[in-house]
Specification:
The structure is a homodimer of 154-residue chains.
Chain A (H helix, E strand, L loop, with lengths): L5 H12 L5 H8 L3 H13 L3 E8 L8 E9 L4 H13 L3 E7 L5 E7 L2 H12 L5 E14 L8
Chain A binds a DNA duplex (17 and 17 nucleotides) through helix 3.
Chain lengths: 154, 154
DNA sequence: GGTGAAATCTACCTAGG
DNA sequence: CCTAGGTAGATTTCACC
């Protein structure tokens, strides 16, 4: 596995903010030739450092006016409960990310809904009736004051 | 503002998973000509539906082995406390996203650190000593079971 | 929906440490 | 021998028809 140097880190930082930068523009920003910048980018893709390029969407323009984080506690720690919950999560498009965390609650989920009624439906008609789910604690996002900054460069 | 139809939504879904799809590939997936697919994509960019294209990085390969979510409660509700906290957040690269939420805690933050020691330093040497910060509750990410799915299509 | 000019990527080649 | 810079063919985009 090749070593990552400071130039690679700066390249990653730039591409996290704007993946459309051309090899030429990257080269100018990093004092490299376009071909070298392109070669570095390709190597970062091949080694799995860059996992993918993704379009970011404005959820409000899509009609998704409500975002929330939910902490979910399962009824049991048994593996089949976790598996049943996992199926629920996969089948629900409103849930975009799920993390397992240390601490009292078992899962943290990020959800997007069209409105408050849809969020309440998700909680009371989908999550709480599910046998694997014991408790749901939901907090609605009022504002995002810092969004998707590049990863820190260690 | 032009209306978004079902084809636009499918296009957005594809581009969220892979922003490198060419107009030709998009056209094949959507039963459109390449020129029409490209035109739709351009329109979604111009109207701000697509806010940017971003490279996604594998944090572990960068040496960021610890992720966490933190809930931060401020010492006061005064605007200058929030503003001081905002400056702290902006100056700290480990904090990649910050949300304001409903409920008891004032902020939810997502952080990436090289290791547990760095995370503890962040909590005890940066956040807690800051005059605006009253309480910090941190939960480490053990696993991400669903990651960055496309936004739901309403 | 199609076409062509301009721009970009990428594989290959050459030079230098 | 390995890394950096340059070049040409193929691919893609985008303004226009």
């Amino acid at each position: 596995m090749p070593q990552i140097d400071q130039t690679d880190r700066r390249l990653l930082k730039l591409l996290q903010r704007n993946a459309q930068l051309t090899s030429q523009e990257l080269g100018e920003a990093l004092n490299l030739s376009a071909s070298q910048a392109g070669r570095r980018r390709q190597r970062l893709e091949e080694t799995g450092m860059i996992t993918r390029y993704a379009a970011q969407i404005d959820p409000r323009k899509l009609g998704l006016d409500v975002q929330a984080f939910m902490q979910v506690e399962l009824a049991s720690q048994a593996p089949q409960a976790a598996q049943a919950f996992q199926q629920l999560v996969e089948s629900c498009a409103d849930i975009t990310s799920v993390w397992t965390l240390t601490g009292e609650s078992d899962f943290l989920m990020r959800v997007y809904c069209a409105n408050l009624a849809a969020l309440n439906d998700l909680i009371h008609r989908v999550l709480l009736p599910h046998p694997a789910v014991a408790r749901v604690h939901s907090q609605i996002v009022l504002d995002q004051t810092k969004r998707d900054a590049p990863l820190p460069l260690p």
